[in-house]
Amino acid sequence: MPVKKPAPAVAADMPDVVDLKLDTLTIDEIDAIEEITGQPLDALNKAGTRRAPMLKALAYVVMKRKNPDFTIEDAGRLRINLKGKGKPDPTEANA
Predict the structure, then answer these.
(1) Do the beta carbons of residue 21 and residue 81 sit within 8 Å?
(2) What angle do CA 59, 10, 35 make, to 5 degrees?
(3) Nearest to 60 by CA among 94, 23, 9
């Protein structure tokens, strides 16, 4: 019997936006991000550095929590909603 290929991880049941909240990462997830990018996590905030590889790695580890078949290629197709300790938006109702 032929082996079935797994369906792409980004399907109708998977969101196309990922919420990234840096303070929810585990040590293993941070390690995976640094391994994938070859950079320390704090490189995300350095002026002049490319952010896409780090954001892609962040999205990858977060989405792997929900879907173990999720790939780094799937992460490249997501939109990102960054969440963290930034200044509150004064136009938001809960600001």
Answers:
(1) no
(2) 30
(3) 9
Q: Where are the alpha helices (DSSP H) in 1-95?
A: 27-37, 52-66, 72-75
CA angle 19, 23, 26 (to 5 degrees): 95
CA distances, 95 to each of 19, 86, 87, 89 (Å): 19, 12, 9, 6
Distance set, CA 84 to CA 12, 30, 87, 88 (Å):
27, 16, 9, 10
Q: What is the pTM of this model?
A: 0.63
Which pLDDT tens digit goes with each residue over 3-48?
555 555 445 455 677 777 778 889 999 999 999 999 998 887 888 8
Q: What is the pLDDT of residues 54-95, one digit of tens each?
A: 889 988 998 898 899 999 999 999 887 766 655 555 665 655
Q: Which two tokens mark 85?
A: 């300790």
Q: Is 55 helix (H, G, I), strand (E, B) or coil?
A: helix
